[in-house]
Every structure is written in structure tokens, then in C-alpha cells.
């Protein structure tokens, strides 16, 4: 049984604990970072810089109009750069 499945069963069974929340969050974060590294590195290899810039601008516009909090999709380096300006 995988970690996500075990967490799902614990949540449904009422056995969710603060420690399980921390472990689940760390596992999910690690998975997302791994996926990001693989996906974005491959995109950078295969897409021209102009296409990447266009996709980035389209994503920024989407998230700006999505109603989501701005910081939810900001990279740490982007947030720091914006604060410094």
C-alpha cells in the first residue's frame, strides 16, 4: 500500500493525527517537487524560449483572474523579487 492510500484510509477511518498531517504534507511536497523538476526540465529542453515565455504569461493571467490567493502559485524567488522592488 502506498503512502497516499494509507493516508486516505486513515482519514476515512478517523485515525488522522497531526503527525500524519505533517508526514503527508512532506510526502506530497516531495512528490510535487520531483514532478516539477522532471516536467519543467523536459519543457526547457523541448520548447523554444519564446513559447515558454508565452505559456508563463498565459498562466500568470489565468491565476490573476482565478480568484486564488496570489501567493499560492508564486515561487519563493518570485515573491522575494517582488518584495524588493
The stretches of 5 or more residues where confidence is low (pLDDT under 50) are: 78-82
Q: Name the shape in a single word.
A: elongated
Write down the secondary-structure element order.
HHHH
What oligomeric state do the depicted chains represent?
A: single chain
Mean pLDDT: 78
Distance between the termini: 48 Å
Largest sheet: none
Per DSSP, the total helix count is 4
Work out the number of β strands.
0
Which structural class fits the helix and strand makeup?
mainly alpha
> What radius of gyration results from the CA coordinates?
17 Å
Strand content: under 5%
Helix content: over 70%
List keywords for this structure.
mainly alpha
Characterize the structure shown.
This protein has four helices and no strands. With 85 residues, it is an all-alpha fold. The protein has a domain at 18-63. It is elongated. The chain has helices at residues 3-12, 18-46, 49-64, 76-84.
Concise overview:
With 85 residues, the protein is mostly helical.
Give the SSE map.
Blueprint: H1 3-12, H2 18-46, H3 49-64, H4 76-84
Amino acid at each position: 500500500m502506498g503512502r497516499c492510500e494509507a493516508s486516505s484510509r486513515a482519514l476515512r477511518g478517523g485515525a488522522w493525527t497531526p503527525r500524519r498531517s505533517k508526514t503527508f504534507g512532506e510526502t506530497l511536497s516531495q512528490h510535487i517537487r520531483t514532478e516539477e523538476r522532471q516536467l519543467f526540465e523536459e519543457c526547457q529542453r523541448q520548447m523554444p524560449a519564446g513559447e515558454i515565455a508565452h505559456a508563463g504569461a498565459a498562466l500568470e493571467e489565468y491565476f490573476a483572474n482565478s480568484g486564488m490567493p496570489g501567493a499560492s502559485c508564486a515561487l519563493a524567488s518570485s515573491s522575494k523579487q517582488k518584495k524588493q522592488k
